[in-house]
Amino acid sequence: YNLDNQSKAQAVYNMVKEINEKNRGADGRPLIDGVGMQGHYRVSTNIDNVEKSLEKFISLGLEVSVTELDIQAGANAALLEAQALEQGIVYARLFSLFSRHADHIGRVTIWGLDDGKSWRSQTNPTLLDAELKTKPAFFGALDPEKFLAENEAQLVRETKEAFAPHGSPAPGRFDDPAWDKAPDIPIDQYLMAWQGASGTARALWDERCLYARITVRNAELNRTNSSLHEQDSVEVFIDEQNQKTRSIQNDDGQYRVNFENERSFSRPELEAGFDSAASVSEKSYTVIMQIPFRTITPQAGMRIGFDLQINGASERGLRQSIAVWNDVSGNSFQDTSGYGLLRLEAK
User: pLDDT tens, 135-185?
Assistant: First the structure.
């Protein structure tokens, strides 16, 4: 499961490769000749990651089975028309992918007959509704190319906008009154099937810095992996000039802090003037970041590109969930076009 996670897919790839290299039969056949990808996805799942994982296993000569496919959309057993369309498009994109690799896929199993009987009935994940009526998902799976040609252009994902009041919180003070005037920013869109750590953030700004306070819930508090992005940690992405480019520019920055206040940056120069603090309480933690403005002179009314991410580690020390605020592409580290907007409010 969770094999759209590139770290986990790579681990499975390495394991199968090692086993097969050491354990070939007398006829030369490998011990392992197939692998199953469960496929419990959401409409925000990064299809490119699914394809990368699929191609990893195909490169080993394996037959791949998609064993438990469903795609969550909506909530409380309700599905709005726009949500149903988006779900249909994701089903179509997946079945288009499966068709391109059909020679290497043994089967695709839909996990449940209808939404009413699904194990995730509250999020309407199958091809039929609870009354056994076809949904857009059914037609997306049936004829993906036709469905995408007729519907994909209708899918417009709204760019979220948050607000940062003017204020200068005291360094390391989690309960500074300045934070009280900042609204919550929910970080609750999952990029992987597993729904792990999530949380909320608040943002402030002054003439020198942007400040972010991120509170995380339902965390394992695991930092055993040497890679910080695999640990329980939070990330802030900034596109100061809001250029929304497909590649990282000088005004862009990625800042990561784990629950023990260990820091990492997308580029070494981002560390200058940066400060942070972390506080842990049971399965929750809070991180405060002070991020200097580098290429702009901030002013009230200005909008900057901005996004947030929570990395949730498993007990074994691998990232098992990713929650974001706006950008569901999974490419925030290398592409700013999907960032949300942060408006700097007047004093």
Answer: 999 999 999 999 999 999 888 778 999 999 999 999 999 999 999 999 999
Report phi then psi at 265, rounded to 5: -140, 155
In degrees rounded to 5, what are phi and psi of residue 65? -115, 135
Domains of the chain: 6-154 (3.20.20.80), 161-344 (2.60.40.1190)
Question: Rounded to the nearest 5 degrees, what angle is found at the Cα of 12, between the Cα atoms of 7 and 17?
Answer: 125
Q: How far apart are CA 289 and CA 36, in angstroms?
A: 41
Q: Could you tell me the two tokens for 273? A: 């003037």
Q: Pick from 53, 44, 15, 336: which is nearest to 192 by CA?
A: 44
**Both ends of the chain: CA-CA distance in Å?**
48
Q: Dihedral sign for Cα 129, 134, 135, 140, please.
A: positive
Contact 185, 162 (CB under 8 A): yes
* 2, 320 Cβ separation under 8 angstroms: yes
Rounded distance, CA 17 to CA 134, Å? 41
* pLDDT band, residue 193 (cuts 50/70/90): low
